[in-house]
Amino acid sequence: MAQTLNVTVAIVGAGPVGATLAAALAAANIPCAVLDAAPLPPMEMQAFDGRCYAVAAGSRPVLEAAGIWQRLPEPPCPIERILVADGEPGRPPSPLSLTFRAAETGQEAFGWMVEARSLRVALNARLPHLPALSVFAPATAEVASRGPEGVSLQLSTGEVVHAQLLVAAEGRRSPLRGQAGIRTTGLDYHQIGMVGAFAHERAHDNQALEMFLANGPFAQLPLSHAPAGAPFPHASAFVWSDKTAIAKRMLALDDDGFSRELARRSGGLLGEVRVIGQRWSYPLTAMAAERYTAERMALVGDAAHGIHPIAGQGLNLGFRDVAALADLVIAAVAAGEDPGGPALLARYQAARRPAAMMMLGATHALEKLFGNGFPPLRAARRLGIAAVDRIGPLKRAFARQAMGLG
Ligand SMILES: Cc1cc2nc3c(=O)[nH]c(=O)nc-3n(C[C@H](O)[C@H](O)[C@H](O)COP(=O)(O)OP(=O)(O)OC[C@H]3O[C@@H](n4cnc5c(N)ncnc54)[C@H](O)[C@@H]3O)c2cc1C
User: Fold this and answer.
1) Residue ranges of the alpha helices (H) in 66-201?
2) Where exactly are the structural domains of the chain?
3) Where are the alpha helices (DSSP H) in 223-294?
4) Which ligand 1 atom sits nearest the alpha carbon of residue 284?
5) Which residue puts its alpha carbon closest to atom 36 of ligand 1?
6) What would the pLDDT profile of 146-193 be if each residue is shown by its tens digit?
7) Ligand 1 test: best mutation among 79, 113, 170, 238, most atoms within 8 Å of CB?
8) d(CA 219, CA 71)
9) Residue minimizing CA distance to atom 18 of ligand 1
10) What is the mean predicted confidence (pLDDT) over 393-399?
11) How far is residue 74's CA from residue 41's CA, in Å, rounded to a whole number?
12) Beta bridge partners of 162
């Protein structure tokens, strides 16, 4: 006889968004199951993994409430200042730049740089110890039935999970989204995002740099410390978007050549630089699901939306989905209402889809405005950047949006 597990919420996909939702709900004693096609422990890689997330100030309370922030193995590096500038490879940032200071908004930091590996360590330390949560990994699931009574999932491990709400958190290619007939619209930027870490000679002083270059933006994001054996005492992560053909050439370079190209794009602010650890690359696309819900199902994270990494907001959007859905489910359970019913799903969609569409539009507009080397446009946007720097309320409004506090 297959074992049947009855839960309130079943989450398919234990990436950063699905796993955080599982921890947030289980921490509030909502019975949950989460499953992932990949085994969880090997996600904690031994080798230095330079991939990092800029976790916005507004996302930190989500991770704290889920008991994850407290379990990060290393203190995340705060981003206290952000220098935004137009630039050209091999040249310093334009002096007509814009500096955001967290202190000017009354916050200690815009956000914190959390290594992907650290987040995984914290999630893996949290998930198995929540009595309300059952974890299945590696496992996949088929929807066996779906109706007014709930959803039944047949797991590849043999168990049957019956839930009132099913959450699709399997990332961009979400099979559950497709099976529910939810259409998506997509956009290819014809760019590749190169991600990793580099050591540098001069201190970053907790400052991030967003350099707008004609072929795509280059971001330097401060890390707490350089790993043991690094050639320089300080380290930062980079998210460097470039045209596909150029990025492929860059990725084929050896460490010396790649480090030279990094130095040309980081504006010379950090002295000598040297790439460390592995480089990762992702083709850059945007995606919007036409709906975030289907019968007894909600989409969260990259299953619902995908945006350009120009503003480092992709995962933060997912954390906002987590906050909205967790609040609605916890309130519904407390009020004795159906946590997977049409009323709750409509409230979730109304809370999240317009906000995510706005972020998608804003990141797309930024990419288009700044990814253009046409000289008159470049001059105009440099003046625009400098003007925003001088208009205090506008600058603070931008900063609060980036922090997820807008
Ligand atoms: C270059 C680049 C840089 C970025 N930088 C930032 C940043 O600085 N800040 C930020 O906020 N965001 C950033 N992002 C975005 C961020 O990486 C994503 O938004 C985030 O990973 C989405 O998390 P997720 O849990 O929704 O999906 P994913 O991370 O894709 O996780 C999905 C999970 O589902 C599992 N899965 C898949 N299919 C199945 C299945 N059929 N059954 C069961 N499980 C399944 C997978 O194994 C995986 O564990 C960046 C993205 C890129 C491309």
Assistant:
1) 116-126, 175-179
2) 4-48+117-186+286-364
3) 244-251, 255-265
4) 53
5) 170
6) 998 899 999 999 999 999 999 999 999 999 999 999 999 999 999 999
7) 170
8) 27
9) 315
10) 62
11) 18
12) 6, 152
